[in-house]
Amino acid sequence: MDYKKNMDKIIEFSTKFYNSLDFAHNMEHGKRVVKNAKEIAKMEGGDMFLVEAGAWLHQFHDKIEEVNGFIKSLDMNDEIKNKLYKIVKCRPEYIDETSLLESKIVYDADAIEVLSAYGMIREIICNAKCRNKEWEKSVEDTIMVQQRFKEKLQTKTAKKMLEKDFEVIEEFWNLYKKWSNN
What we know:
Order of helices and strands: HHHHHHHHH
Number of helices: 9
Number of strands: 0
Helix content: over 70%
Shape: globular
Distance between the termini: 56 Å
Radius of gyration: 17 Å
Structural class: mainly alpha
């Protein structure tokens, strides 16, 4: 298998998709998830090709049949294609202790985009601006999504990376509730 050739195709395919998305899910988001996934994989292990490829393709979680067609077109064996497909489905409802290590890594890398201090702000603004939610609904949904993703974090490395963020965010929400009278 020609890893570079396949990775180039994956990045090209993903770039077109990211360029069609909102500010919170654009190419910069994709790059951050890839960077986070590689950092987690350095400590957790896993197949680095699958980690990077899965991180680039992770945003297709809502377009799973489209990405599956693309994965099938890649020049690699069926076992790798099947693993890559499973990695792309790395959402809270699908991830658990039986998931592939690479799925866990990519899930956690994407979860950082919601669970970090940066990610919290990104999620609130995305809810308000892109999803057209009222302010309080934007906040409420951000808190809910953070809880959902935090409960499903899979790796010790990601949990360690987010320790300080968890402290800051908990304090932030406590202060927010105090001043918002909720």
